[in-house]
Amino acid sequence: FTLVNTTKLKQNKLKPQPRAHLTKYHIVIFFYCSIEAYRQYHKLQNVKPSIYLDVSQSWENWGGIQPESCDLIVNINMMHISPLACTTGLFNGVGKILKPQGLLLTYGPYAFSGSITPQSNVDFDHSLRYRL
C-alpha cells in the first residue's frame, strides 16, 4: 500500500520544470509504473500494487481498503508540501486502516524549531516549492 498525494495534480498546481512537458496523467502513471516495476522485479508478494487516492478525502474512498487491513503505511514527501487537509485526512484514514500495532512511517524535509537540515533537505524543499 503506497500513498501518493494527488491533490496538487488534481488542482493543476504542479508546474513542470523548464523544457519538461508532463501532464497529470504522465506523472501519476510514472508513480504507478515505477512502484509496480520495483514490486515485480523483486518479486515482493507482501507489497500490494499502488492505488490512486486523494488523502484529503475520507478513507472510505481509498480504493476499497478495508479497516484494520494494513500492517505498514509509508508516506514520503507529502505532509510538508501539501494542504493541511491532506495531512488531516492521512492521519484520520490511517487510523482506520492500520491493524492494531500497525505503523505509519513518514519522511520528508521537515523543519525542527523552524530549521530544515541537512542542506540537501533544504535544497529539496526549495525545489518542491518551486514546482508549485
UniProtKB/TrEMBL annotation:
The protein, known as: Methyltransferase-like 26
InterPro entries: DUF938, SAM-dependent_MTases_sf
Record family assignment: Belongs to the UPF0585 family.
Pfam families in alphabetical order: DUF938 (PF06080)
SUPFAM superfamilies named among the record's database cross-references: S-adenosyl-L-methionine-dependent methyltransferases
